[in-house]
């Protein structure tokens, strides 16, 4: 699976089509949608289901509704760039499972600090209460991950 901006340019993505983005976590999975043609991403929802089957059923419903041409998953990386983040193997497994179940191209992109940036954005939007922010945080992080991918794609093709 391709990872990061350098690999994006060599991909055969269509010039139009929907993408689904994911911020993978053990407790929650944030989701977002974006359009290749417009280069814009927006948050969708947060999947906060415990069983793997329920999570994949929720993802299947999103894929059925949005008909994406590819999936983008944020890959956690250590802040210092050294070694491997503790969630990286689980995230790669999630990416492989998505590809195997839905037969769609899956792209991994560095998601360092996406949740921190999402929380900052929500606080700046006036959401001071952590419990309120927490419900939206993962979907906003997924939006940021997908927007980064779309921006990288646009720069690679221009």
Characterise the protein shown here.
It is a single chain. By secondary structure, the protein is an alpha/beta fold. The protein contains five helices and five strands; from the N terminus they run H-E-E-E-H-E-H-E-H-H. The protein has a five-stranded mixed beta sheet with strand order 3-2-1-4-5, with helices on both faces. Helix 3 links the parallel strand 4 and strand 5. The longest helix is centred in the C-terminal third of the chain and has 28 residues.
Task: Write the SSE topology.
Layout: H1 4-8, E1 18-23, E2 29-35, E3 40-47, H2 52-66, E4 70-75, H3 88-102, E5 106-110, H4 114-124, H5 130-157
Parallel strand pairs: 1-4, 4-5
Antiparallel strand pairs: 1-2, 2-3
Helix pairs in contact: 4-5
Question: What best-fitting shape do the alpha-carbon axes yield?
Answer: globular
Biggest sheet character: 5 strands, mixed
Number of helices in the DSSP assignment? 5
Structural class: alpha/beta
Query: How many angstroms separate the termini?
Result: 23 Å
Number of strands: 5
Q: How much helix is in the residues?
A: 40-55%
Strand content: 15-25%
Strand order of the biggest β-sheet: 3-2-1-4-5
Topology order in helix (H) and strand (E) letters: HEEEHEHEHH
